[in-house]
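Hi everyone, sorry if this is the wrong subforum. Our group has a chain we'd like a structural model of before ordering constructs, and none of us has done structure prediction before. Sequence below.
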Amino acid sequence: QVQLVESGGGLVQAGGSLRLVCAASGSIFSIGAMGWFRQAPGEQRELAAIAPNHATTTYADSVKGRFTISRDIAKNTVDLQMNSLKPEDAAIYYCYGRIRQRAGDPGNAYWGQGTQVTVSA
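Answer:
Right subforum, don't worry. Here is the predicted structure as tokens:
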């Protein structure tokens, strides 16, 4: 089995910072992309930032210049540093990983349980 476990959410004032951390564990052969999605109440889940292997990191336009994603491929972790937070950044943030459990697998999508980010005005 594979697990993605997030930490680092919480309550912050507008303009503040938070750092989210996600660690993948279990039966992992390799990980392709890892990233962060978010879902606000009544809204669809949307991409915040994603870091594929051997490809350019992608950010949602709404977070460019404020959020930074970083991966440690050896440790199977992905972090999201969020600066200059705005009330509209409030959401549940989900860690995502495209994970292969054996050689030759195309890989399956795995999700963390989500971590709440609340931004007060």
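For your construct planning: The first strand starts at residue 2 and ends at 7. The radius of gyration is 14 Å.
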